[in-house]
Amino acid sequence: MNTSFKSCMNALNTFKAPPFVMVIFGAAGDLAQKKLLPTLFKLFIKGFLKDFSILGFGLPEMTTEEYKKFVKISLKNFAKEDFSEKEFQKFKNCLFYESADLTDGKKYLNLCEKITKLSKDDDTNNLIYYLAVPPTMFEPIVENLSNRKLCKERKGAKIIVEKPFGKDKKSAHLLNQKLLKAFLENQIYRIDHYLGKETVQNVFFFRFGNALFEPLWNRNFIDHVQITVAEDLGIENRAFFYEQASVVKDIVQNHIMQLIALIAMEPPANFEAESLRNERVKIFKSIQPIDPKKINDYIVMGQYQKGIVNGKHVVGYKQEKNVKKTSKTPTFFAGKFFIDNWRWADVPFYVRTGKRLKKRFTEIAIQFKEPPLRLLGHQCSNLESNMIVFSIYPKQKIELRFNVKFPGMENVPYPVDMLFDYKDVFKVDYPLAYERILIDALKSDITLFARQDGVEAMWNVIDPIMDAFEKKKIIHPYESGSYGPKKADELILKDKRQWRQF
To answer: Which residues does 306 contact at the CB level (< 8 Å), separation at least 6?
Structure first.
């Protein structure tokens, strides 16, 4: 173990989050049960959380003792590998609950009293409001918090907002205005958990921490970029949400746009949060608008039909509970984007994402151009292009593909992969995306969170696509368990390229 590794491990093991009170609105909902509470518990047993209180606020009505029992059941269901009765007995001492109709302003008087008590009369502690509720509840919660002087007036106050950030640019702008009326921009933490993934963050370090690659990271050397976010699950009883959002607003408008920005951004002036966020926003604003008249040349929408996924028969989207039989909601998206700047002019960014595909799989692949001359005349005409692949799921790894000579008397090229696998190299329990995001919020580090102008710039890309789709609603069916509709293959094949298999 080298000195650098030891110093990194020491820094990790000695980290302690500052004291905080977290108020969870919707503390008994799906998000709290499946993601938030298991993450907080895991951070606790790792020793990152020391002096803290978690206050559930909302419905259903229950006492603090009943809530502790509720949390225990949730952790047993959704944090099975991490659950420990001994650790929970300590963790539960930090759990509190206050029943309230979130639209009732009078109930927020009780919240004020509870916060004062839990803060131990120290109003400098982190006070975090986590909105684990539907977007329709954002406005009354923020308004009531503001009325009780619990927002920008309260030192250490922060609000964490889950996506979706609006349903289009107009609604996103209105939501931002309401948030900014109560909070300052640096108090607002808009979560996109994809940015918390280790491999995603390492795109940045790989590019700017290695002089070997950055000079090649441009249109002179890169042929194209492919981004794949494939899921084998269906909509999982989320028909109400999905019928309104679709795969475009659920995945493309946020996750995929952020991945494009990380690949394409310019080196920031420094490592400060605003410098990094500035560069990401510049990319969102540089993505070339798609001509609505040529939408079918750049975009393919699909919807899953019945099929077999992971050996099990599954129903089609229209057969899912609470989905209209005439629905044309897209569950698959494939698109080609261009970035109008000096570095990336004419380099296509191909993206695809969808539900009920062959398997769950996420990666970013950067394919370089072919060598300008054939090696040794035409004796070696089968040289493959160099490629860098950032695998995000199921494994977190980085691969570099290059050509070597195959052993023997003949001159035969052979592609090989140089592989860096996180688990093989580090052999440590690196933080999951939600762990990293929550710790950053506790540290007041807004680097990995979306900014107001960035959110609206992403909608600027998506709104024209959805407007054009709504006019014609051309949707291509695909069998569950496949790679998506055939039309998506044609989208890239017509450019004499092909999708990577997964």
So the answer is: 313, 314, 315, 316, 319, 479, 480
Q: What pLDDT is attached to residue 82? A: 87
DSSP string, 336-350: EE-B-STTTTT--EE
272 phi, psi to nearest 5 deg = -75, 150
Token pair for 475: 């949707």
The DSSP line for 288-349 is PPPPGGGHHHHEEEEEEEEEEETTEEE--GGGSTT--TT----SEEEEEE-B-STTTTT--E
Instruction: Give the pTM.
Output: 0.91
Cα 56 to Cα 32: distance, rounded to the nearest angstrom: 10
The three-point CA angle 285-201-225 to 5° equals 55
Rounded Cα gap, residues 371 and 65, in angstroms: 68
Collect all residues with Cβ–Cβ distance below 8 Å to 26 and sequence separation of at least 6: 32, 58, 131, 132, 133, 137
Beta carbons of 273 and 446 less than 8 angstroms apart: yes
Residue 135 burial (10 A CB sphere; 0-12, 13-18, 19+)? middle
Residue 196 structure tokens: 């918390």
Strand ranges (E), 216-298: 222-230
Q: CA 426, CA 432: separation in Å to the nearest integer?
A: 15
How many residues can be counted in the chain? 502
* Residue among 251, 387, 243 at smallest CA distance from 324: 243
One-letter amino acid at 387 equals M
Angle separating helix axes 37-45 and 64-78, nearest 10 degrees: 80
Packed helices 198-208 and 257-264: angle between N→C axes, nearest 10 degrees: 20
Q: Which residue has the higher pLDDT, 220 or 201?
A: 220
| Measured distance CA(52)–CA(476) in Å, rounded | 50
**Edge to edge, what strands does the sheet with 95-99 contain?**
95-99, 52-58, 20-25, 126-131, 157-161, 188-190
Compute the distance between CA of residue 83 and CA of residue 102 in angstroms, rounded to an integer.
Answer: 31
Identify whether the C-beta of residue 198 lies closer than 8 Å to the C-beta of residue 458: no
Tokens 């949400």 locate to 241
Q: How confident is the model at residue 270 (pLDDT cuts 50, 70, 90)?
A: confident
Q: How confident is the model at residue 271 (pLDDT cuts 50, 70, 90)?
A: confident
Q: Show the 3-state SS of 187-202.
A: HEEECCHHHHCHHHHH
For 261, the token pair is 């920005």
53 within 8 A of 62, measured Cβ to Cβ:
no
Residue 93 burial by CB count (10 A; 0-12/13-18/19+): exposed, middle or buried? Answer: exposed
Residue 476 a catalytic site member:
no
Strand partners, 376: none
In percent, the amount of the chain with pLDDT more than 90 equals: 69
* CA 170/CA 166 separation, integer angstroms: 8
pLDDT at 467: 94
Given 173, 193, 224, 255, which residue is catalytic? Answer: 255
Q: Span 378-395, mean pLDDT?
A: 82
